[in-house]
Amino acid sequence: MNPGNLSNDAQAAPASGRTLIERTYERLRDDILDGVLAGDEKLRVQHLKEHYDASAGTLREAITRLVSDALVITEGQRGFRVAPISAADFDDLTQLRIHIEIEALRQSMRNGNARWRDNLREVWIDLSALEQPLRPENAKAWEKLNTAFHEALLAGCNSPWTLRVLRLLARQSERYRRFAISRVAVGRDVHAEHREIYESVLAGNELRAALALEAHIARTAELITRKLNGAEGR
Question: pLDDT digits over 117-164, tens only?
């Protein structure tokens, strides 16, 4: 059949289907990140159809994307379940993130151009406006800008594979941050930590920037680990 003879509705159908899969994926992802779908919870497609107003095929497509994000585990013929969370898993994730992200920051600072610096400034302005102070009701909006800030810092890194791995680690870290969001902001000035990283990067002080980034990640990890250990101890 000649594609040119298809009706407008028929030509639009694939795009509409893709939009529905994307929307379902985003809803499932948010529910996993927010803990609505808990770690180790079985994902029964038939039970999810009504809640997410999606077909079994759409749900399976969306869930398959979540498997690629390491947020869902496939169990062969037994279906899917939400990936569990634990202090040990988070510690492993954090150590890997520190190792890769600090080196990526060094490379980004060495290779970043004027456009990279301008983009970093723009993201920094938006982030600063939201986290002075950081309020619980702004948690989701802050998460997006926090992710954008860290991505902007590393955007000058010339290794596509490094950036892909870091995006995966960031998605996992976001889940843990949301789990402990009330504790992450307690007793610390997150904006001051971000400012130290930002100013060190723009000043070209590679060592100071790397140390500030490592300390920032470590502080967040310490607070989240306490929350996880408390949850596991109950």
Answer: 999 999 999 999 988 777 777 777 888 898 899 999 999 999 999 999
Does residue 195 share a domain with residue 208?
yes
- Look at strands 42-43 and 72-74 and give their pairing: unpaired
Domain check: are 191 and 114 in the same one? yes
Domain of residue 136, residue span:
87-233
Domain harbouring 172, CATH code? 1.20.120.530
Q: Which amino acid is at 214?
A: E
Give φ, ψ of 74 to 5 degrees: -90, 140
Residue 12 CB partners (closer than 8 Å, separation 6+): none
Measured CA to CA, the distance from residue 224 to residue 15 in angstroms comes to: 40
Whose tokens are 């990526």? That residue is 104
User: Where among 82, 103, 127 does a domain terminate?
Assistant: 82
pLDDT digits (tens, 9 = 90+) for 99-130: 999 999 999 999 999 999 999 999 999 999 98
Give the three-state DSSP class for 43: strand
| pLDDT(14) > 60 | no
Q: Are residues 77 and 97 in the same domain?
A: no
Rg (CA), the chain: 20
Angle, helices 139-154 vs 160-179, to 10°: value is 160
| Distance (Å, whole) CA 39 – CA 5 | 48
- Is the domain of 156 the same as that of 184? yes
